[in-house]
Amino acid sequence: MAKKSVCMYFQVHQPTRLRLYRFFDMGKDSHYYDDFANRTILRRVAQKCYLPMNALLLEQIRLSGGKFRVAFSLSGSVLEQFERYAPEVIDSFRALAETGCVEFLGETYYHSLASMASPSEFLHQVVKHRRQVEELFRVTPTVFRNTELIYSNAIGEQVYALGYKTMLTEGARHIMGWRSPNFVYSSETCPKLRLLLRNYTLSDDIAFRFSDRGWGDWPLTADKFLGWMKESAATDDIINLFMDYETFGEHQDAASGIFDFMRALPGTVIGDGTFEFVTPSQAVKKHKPVGSLDVPDAISWADEERDVTAWLGNELQQEAFNKVYAMTEKLSIVNDAALWADFGHLQESDHLYYMCTKFFSDGEVHKYFNPYDTPYEAFINYMNVLSDFQIRLDEARAALDVRETAEKEEAAPVEKAPVKKRAVRKKAAK
Amino acid sequence: MRVLMFGWEFPPHIAGGLGTACEGIVKGLAYNGVETLFVMPSASGDEDQSATTIINASDVAVDVVSETVESFLDKVKFVHIGTNMVPYADPEEFARLVDEDRQRQVKDFSISYGQKYKFSGKYGANLLEEVARYAMVGGTIALQHKDEFDLIHAHDWLTYYAGIAAKELTGKPLVIHVHATSFDRGTEDMIDSRVFAIEKRGMLLADRVVTVSDLTRNIVINKYGIDPSKVVTVHNAVDFSGRENLSVERGVKEKTVTFLGRITFQKGPEYFIEAAAKVLKRTKNVRFVMAGSGDMMNRAIRQAARLGITDRFHFTGFLRGADVQKMFALSDVYIMPSVSEPFGISPLEAMRTGVPSIISKQSGAAEVLRYAFKVDFWDVDAMADDIYALLHYPALAAFSARQGFDEVNALKWNGATAKLKAVYESLLNQ
After folding, report:
1. Are residues A387 and B315, on separate chains, in Cβ contact within 8 Å?
2. What's the number of domains chain A is made of?
């Protein structure tokens, strides 16, 4: 009998946090970012999580003789920060890439919600991210993971059209019903697209509950966890453990024993022989889909609801989202590299997450990740920045008109005015 | 003529507009040849004493100079702020409770006798206790300075008890000055009944009640049931001496319409937002700013987001010091849509900066400003009309800016305090 599979994927992302941006700054100062906080936090997380955990994974891959495999998705935003503040982290990911046991997934460059707003912007960011991964790690992503595992039929279709045949998403209870997430599925509306679903119980045992001493099953050991895996997949094919990479050493600190757990897990699983480690692309080669999933409304891995209300749940978030994406068209006309870069960073889903007003069951998680005291402050600050950005965009657009008129006048002797040349967006514009 | 005046704050350390008004009044009185002894709970020592002599109540021990403890207490006993509501007590029981209360008061008094009390002079949680203690110390001060004044003048409810104690102990006439009432702080059916009781007592026991506007005079007569013949309006003025208008560089091209003040029910923030949305339907060439903070701020932000105008409607949060002047200097139109405003000094500040102002008819300032635009607070259509007109008809804006500037410069405390002096004279000549 073929072995069952276990697929681990880790999300690596850091937002580009905004500085305190006041009304008085609008039109005067267009530097939007809190460089100090971004640098400090990135360097801290690199020391506590990225560097030691990458070393641990490399060691385990070598010890297992290549049988231990994992997948990563690194947002463009965090890769930019690595390049700027901690280039040694990129080297350590490169070393992992060279083992051949690590798969890198595609996502939107800016960890954005573009998949729900603008097909053209989504395409732009997916391609931009693909190029960046190719350049840094010499591999081309073939499996797609959308921001926060957000997925719907419509998003699946877009992703498939971009050439990806597999997508990761959440095994959301309200979609799965009686069905188990421990199989490969296909999309209802796009049957060739394969779906890998997060087993949220087992994933969250590691990501959220590991260090919780109030938890009945504390402390968690590799043997105990293997037992649960067997139980969960008794008649199933695959267990997908998807989580934030910052789980290791940051959300669960080193003193909780999380690194010891991860050092023990690969050997325990491989030694037992029930499961083998696979990457997402190996998983879909190995297992046939057992059914199709119909997801008309977007799901995600966030909060109890597993929907997109963490980013678009209230009127503040919807307003900010609408306002930022309303600029897309003008931006592609202006096509300015500096504006593209700021536009991208302003789309990071984290900015909307800070405006979330769900303070109840998931409030603690939201608070943990939030640099603002209240969602209102987050909204005001973001909209102030966006207003300045709009001013720059409008000025650039006006300048372009002036240039075009001048060009036209130059060409005046010619009877037919030259066809207005709309600049085509430079794809690698940063 | 000499006046013993009870205030709560005095520049430079002020939390509201009361301190500023008191400074204007003592200076104006000095100009009119009236000397003042100004008592405040907590003086810092850096107050400008060129026009008045400041007595710091925190430096004065409760002391009985010419009275017995019993008669002193008899006269100030009303200051004890405990609950008088004893449900279901029979007469004997009630008499016993009253007696107990009286003994406790004598005991309290013997403890505090000869002690100084360090007032915070702020508007904190133990405000009512401070108000009561201020009356004890105020009574003492009145006795100590018995021969140095002809009448007593108390500003706002915080000082009414002190004023009453001084009157009871010295027999000199009492003027109370109503800068605001409970009805300007709460809504009709949600006022603080303890404060209302203090206010009403002060008004009943005073020989004259001075109000800052006819609007407030009507409230005093109708809501507190005070005899109209003893209620006199003396409109506020404003002291602009030594004020240079700031010149600031603008970051945004668009005209700016500003609301500046506490974002509370009384200030009518929602009407401003409604009017802004109406204007934005006609023209995009404008920005709206709501400067300040308050308990309605979050609601206001949600309202603006719901209307989809937050790319043109900005929030600054609470503004301090120079930022207030800066905000006026950045404005093209100022608006004060207050639902209830005893006077409202901010449009005067705006007009002094050369900014045309729109104010609600429900404000005291509307009674004295001829060159401000006046609308009913609820009439958002009229508000939008006026905003639009001031933004688009330069002749109108220039005219009202120029006339308004001259008008507010003519509103001097010297004139207002001459009226006040007449009030004093009418009492002393009785």
Report:
1. no
2. 2
Domain residue limits at A121: 4-293
Q: What pLDDT does residue B191 have?
A: 84
Instruction: Name the token pair of B216.
Output: 């407030």
Give the tens place of pLDDT for each residue, A172-185. 999 999 999 999 99
- pLDDT tens-digit series, residues A293-348: 999 999 999 988 999 999 999 999 999 999 999 999 999 999 999 999 999 999 99
CB contact under 8 A, A383 and B252: no
Domains and CATH numbers, chain B: 2-239+416-428 (3.40.50.2000), 255-409 (3.40.50.2000)
CB-based contact A32:A65 (threshold 8 Å)? no
Among A22, A376, A388, the residue with its CB nearest the CB of B316 is A22
Cβ distance B311 to A390 less than 8 Å, yes or no, reads yes
Q: What is the pLDDT of residues B219-277, one digit of tens each?
A: 999 999 999 999 999 999 988 877 777 788 888 889 999 999 999 999 999 999 999 99
> Both A327 and A387 in a single domain?
yes
The pTM score is 0.84
Share of chain B above pLDDT 70, in %: 89
* Chain A to chain B Cβ contacts (< 8 Å): 62
Task: Note whether A212 and A349 are same-domain residues.
Answer: no
pLDDT at B97 over 90: no
How far apart, in Å, are the Cα atoms of A212 and each of A66, A251, A362, A392, B368?
A: 32, 11, 16, 48, 66
Residue A20 at interface with chain B, using a CB cutoff of 8 Å: no
Q: Which helix (H) or strand (E) holds B154?
A: strand B151-155
Q: Are residues A268 and A363 in the same domain?
A: no
* Cβ <8 Å between B310 and A24: no
- Which of B 379-408 lie inside 8 A of A, CB atoms? none
Catalytic residue flag (residue A364): no
